[in-house]
Amino acid sequence: MSHQLSTVITGIGELTTNDPERAEQGGLLGLVHDAAVVVEGTRVAWVGPAAEAPDADVQVDAGGRAVVPGFVDSHSHLVFAGDRSAEFEARMTGQPYTAGGIRTTVARTRAATDEQLTSHVARLVAEMRAQGTTSIEIKSGYGLSVHDEARSLAVARQFTEDTTFLGAHVVPAETTPEDYVDLVTGPMLAAAAPHARWIDVFCEDGAFDVDQARTILAAGSDSGLRGRLHANQLTYGGGVQLACELGLVAVDHCTYLSDADVSALASSGTIATLLPGVEFSTRQPYPDARGLLDAGVRVALASDCNPGSCFTSSMALCIALAVREMRMSPAEALHAATAMGAAALDRDDVGVIAPGKMADLVLLEAPSYVHLAYRPGVPLVAGVWQAGRPVVGPWG
Ligand SMILES: [Zn+2]
Questions:
Q1: Ligand 1 center from residue 11 Cα (angstroms)
Q2: Average confidence (pLDDT) over 143-160
Q3: What's the pTM?
Q4: Which CATH number fits domain 72-344: 3.40.50.300, 3.20.20.140, 3.40.718.10, 3.30.70.20?
């Protein structure tokens, strides 16, 4: 075997590992102070106090700054074309949110070439990476035809293995709900499945009801796709209960929850992925993260980056909102944006800095992770290693 170049990153003032084995001394985040990390190839080889760090081929100095795991953004809609800033401006100046906007994006997405869609996703992925996001999930859902859903997923697959078929986003203008569910569970699923790992449904008044969601998720499962769900975003309803009943790994939004929904989440272990950028961008009430955590629910944070309800790619903003508006502690919010994001994608190789895990690390221009919430809106990401490669910052 050829020797892989090793790098030791020393001088880490505060290292967030998320390693449960370090929880006793390091709390939820498994903090190590005055730490070092050795990277070999794509993986972390060693973690511990800098004074005990082994030799490596290359040495870099973090200068006393904080290092955290790369963010895991488990919910995004990056494959689209067109601009909806005028709709946002109208909403912010008093006009209500309507479903018409999604149809605008569908028309523009269908009209775009594969190359245009790919270059647009590449730009957004680079924007995310520059802000510390090293793992992403990307959904389809703006094609809504057999051809356009399949090619949206093929585009997304160039950037991540965690691609999600969301043909059941809305019913397109040209068809009826019954015919469209038949299409989604038939020819569209067959065309999408080779490019997808997950299947998702927007379960909401005006989109798809619980019975339709159940039918679509079952068809996806038969084709080897694992289920996820958009549920309880705008209204109370049965989506969260369906996700828990089916044992889905995650159910996303969870803004309008009954006590029974919270109990179902706590007992099923299904992760509630909260997307506070949406509430921020639509002036909706925030989900009750504090109540969910206190009830024992597992909570993740993600961006929901999309052109309509939330066009931010910043996980740091989501952390700041989670702390300020949803009463998560800074540690809970960072954990939810990293380790829990990984859990929401059923990934055990990312979201944690420990031997054997992917070397996805973010160097902050700050002495502590707390600055992610304490300094909202400030670009604190000074460097990013992705799969062991410096991709942003002084060593990139
Ligand atoms: Zn979404």
A1: 39
A2: 98
A3: 0.97
A4: 3.20.20.140
